[in-house]
Specification:
DNA binding, 4-stranded antiparallel sheet, Gyrase A, domain 2, 22% strand, Topoisomerase II, domain 5, isomerase, alpha+beta, single chain, topoisomerase, DNA topoisomerase (ATP-hydrolyzing)
């Protein structure tokens, strides 16, 4: 599904032309029934149940297998400078079944999901960083679902996409829910790990190993990482509480985040006050929230509110809740947090595929796997460039020989019966 990252932030890939809030997302978080597609599926045994691991993102690219395949037609529709393409085309390339797929998650104003046949997408500018160097033998390829095309198993991923955009999915007996993070903070943490990386083998042992096989240790504590990664960075903002829970989630891979709407107190005439909502918790629909508050006032579960209106515009969210003269500001605000989605919790369960097996990962482990992936990509890219350079050097050596013996070369070509004969004699 294509979605609006300002509202429903999932796996990064495409820029949705339908969404006014911008960004790039592609998600597939529904259970996949009993349908089993051989290509792109990983299996493992849990009790007596064989579970198809289709719900989780690969820790290298931060994308589900089927979503990586969506980039296989990268050259024809992928670049952000090209014209947009229909969402249905992308779905058809990457999936054998599009049941339940929509082109967006709707909007923060309560708009329903849009059908993929009515909307268009293209890769966003930053998504190019996920695909860069993919044509330099940096990743492994496999058949797509019907074996008519080749698709990458993962992307080179210059960006730590798994943490950057987050991920969400559910399957039998397991689920994953990873919040999005700030790119600058992630880069700071990655640079810290690179600066403190140490080789755990001797120089003699290193000479006998491939660069990608040289084990590295990162002498970085979780507290040092958290000096850079302050916590999740949700696109709808809001105020995050519960630092200990956040730290625990980064250590163990499991925890939760408490998110509250950001409000402002404004004075009205005759000594009255108003509560103005300027930011909402992640994935909360503004339209549904306003409707919920109205029902609570009608049912008298929340008292002290005289007026409620939505003044949101292109400059941002502004929901005004006017209070009665005798209303207690803090009491009304606490009731709003208690009875509405002005306060929500985001459960964190960082599960991702590591070598095809789902694992619960902490922050240090995720970044360590990401760095290992980038070492592999850069090594493979360098080997590819070296191979191309040697091939080019071989051709140039031939040119030099031909130029040094130009008269003889011309004579051979003149006397040759045809082109194959000339080639055979020149060789």
């Amino acid at each position: 599904m294509l979605g609006n990252a300002g509202f429903q932030n999932k796996n990064v890939l495409f820029n949705n032309g339908y969404s006014a809030t911008q960004l790039w997302v592609f998600k597939s978080d529904q259970a996949w029934d009993e349908e089993v597609v051989e290509s792109g599926w990983q299996f493992f045994r849990k009790g007596k149940v064989a579970v198809a691991v289709k719900f989780a993102s690969d820790q290298r690219s931060g994308l589900e297998v089927v979503l990586v395949g969506s980039g296989l037609d990268y050259d024809s529709f992928g670049a952000f400078k090209t014209a947009v393409k229909t969402n249905a085309r992308i779905t058809g390339i990457s999936m054998t079944s599009s049941k339940g797929v929509t082109a967006s998650e709707g909007s923060i104003d309560g708009d329903p999901p849009a059908a993929m046949r009515y909307t268009e997408v293209k890769l966003s500018k930053i998504a190019d960083e996920l695909m860069d160097d993919i044509d330099r033998d940096t990743v492994d390829w496999t058949d797509n679902f019907d074996a008519t095309l080749k698709e990458p198993l993962f992307t080179p991923a210059k960006l730590p996409n798994l943490l950057l955009m987050g991920a969400e999915g559910i399957a039998v007996g397991m689920a994953t829910k990873i919040p999005p993070h700030n790119l600058t903070e992630l880069v700071g943490a990655i640079c810290l790990m690179i600066d403190k990386a140490k080789k755990t083998v001797t120089a003699k042992e290193k000479k006998l190993m491939k660069p990608t096989d040289v084990p590295l240790s990162y002498d970085v504590t979780i507290d040092e990482l958290l000096e850079h990664v302050k916590g999740p960075d949700f696109p709808t903002h809001g105020i995050i509480y519960g630092w200990n829970e956040i730290k625990q989630a980064y250590i163990t891979g499991k925890g939760k985040v408490l998110i509250r709407a950001k409000v402002e107190e404004e004075e009205l005439d005759k000594g009255r006050l108003s509560i103005v909502i300027r930011q909402l918790p992640y994935q909360v629909s503004k339209a549904n929230l306003v409707e919920k508050i109205a029902h609570l006032v009608i049912d008298k579960k929340i008292v002290g509110i005289s007026d409620l209106r939505d003044e949101s515009d292109r400059d941002g969210i502004r929901v005004v809740i006017e209070l009665k003269r005798d209303a207690q500001y803090k009491k009304v605000l606490n009731n709003l947090f208690k009875f509405t989605e002005m306060q929500t919790s985001f459960p964190i369960n960082i599960v991702a595929l590591v070598d095809g097996v789902p694992q619960t990962l902490g922050l240090h482990t995720i970044l360590e796997h990401y760095l290992k992936h980038r070492v592999s990509v850069i090594t493979r890219r360098t080997e590819h460039q070296l191979k191309q350079a040697k091939y080019r050097a071989h051709i140039l050596e031939g040119y030099i020989i031909a130029l040094d013996n130009i008269d003889e070369v011309v004579e051979i070509i003149k006397k040759a019966k045809d082109e194959p004969d000339a080639k055979a004699k020149l060789m």
